[in-house]
């Protein structure tokens, strides 16, 4: 499950990378013609709205499924191309209790103000919009070529983005922008294709705008929008406080039992001191977070290699650090349904932002399990169990330490900020499923280690989970 998006605001300045340059005559002419045809010459702000489904990238219920979606009865996006900045206002439809897959619903309102320190990953979505692309192409030495695709002819405008990836816009024979594509780095997929297609252009107050927008990332949709209204040069005073890129917090640890260490903050991990090696449960988020976990695990358990990293499930926020563990020489333990997928995506190029594994080129070692696997050195025992009938992920694994009565779980129970917060009514399906599996497996649990650990770092007990589902101890 990805953490809920928060309002992103950064210092509002001109786009640092958009240094004007003289275009070749062909590209200049193409841009001039497209700008006139689309009504972009005097466009400074824009608001478009309709109904949408947004999808949670990297949160599929299994490796062969698309990203799961959240339906929205209202989606309105306001863009100030001058600042530049944008705001999205959403009204979500009711989420079916049977929804499968991870991800939290998008926040009702999200604002991004682009400044000199805004990462390219945060900027790219704006410059992929139809009029954002025209501005970016005009300011970044775009070139023009011809291409036929699916029986249609296009003029392709191309420039190099700040991350050194190509940025392509496909202009159809009506001088409308039909498709935009580029590549960004993501921890799991490496050089990841991001694409948007625009169809059904209509005139809205002198501006031509698509009525159907489909955005994809990693091959699956991330936004499917039906546009019903467009307001050119609408008021767009989007405010925000300066903020830098999010930083990975330093790792700390707590000794839970002899040879058992909880590594915090952010996404939690567990390090267990086996006789000749270390077992780490979870390699989440990113190379930065994985490095922090590895460093802390070796600090509290010195002079031993990390032999295994247990992957609770394949969602990208819980597996984004696995490549770093591979570079460390660790073997991944994961559900058998993930093996072929991991082998495929771990072989993808990471040329845009080479990570440790891209240079180390260690052999990827994966051990799999079906419903149960036991790790032991004669002293410590870690039982791995797949949660049956989970709506969150088909290969969701929990780690149980029977001697310590500790259960490590991800997304089956995410404790509230305060232990005494009112329980959900009705109980969530994931919480109920976890309790049912604990009972089925007859696990004697006292302490729960949620990978999404509460910010107050409190000890989470089985009583807290039971309270969440209305079960008496």
The CATH first-level class of the largest domain comes to Alpha Beta
Q: How much beta, percentage-wise?
A: 35-45%
The major sheet is characterized as: 11 strands, antiparallel
What is the number of helices?
10
Give the strand order of the largest sheet, numbering strands 1, 2, ... along the chain: 4-3-2-1-11-10-9-8-7-6-5
| Structural class by helix and strand composition | alpha+beta
Shape: elongated
CATH architecture of the largest domain: 4-Layer Sandwich
Query: How many individual domains?
Result: 2
Oligomer: single chain
Task: Describe what you observe in this structure.
- The chain is an alpha+beta fold and 473 residues long.
- The chain has 2 domains: 208 residues, outer membrane lipoprotein receptor (LolB), chain A; 217 residues, 4-Layer Sandwich (Metallo-beta-lactamase, Chain A), CATH 3.60.15.10.
- The strands form 3 sheets. It has an 11-stranded antiparallel beta sheet, covered by helices on one side. A 7-stranded mixed beta sheet has the order 12-13-14-15-16-17-18, with helices on one face.
- Strand 21 and strand 22 form a beta hairpin.
- Helix 1 packs antiparallel against helix 3 and helix 4 packs across helix 6.
- The longest helix has 14 residues.
- The N terminus is likely disordered.
Could you write a compact summary of the structure shown?
With 473 residues, the protein is an alpha+beta fold.
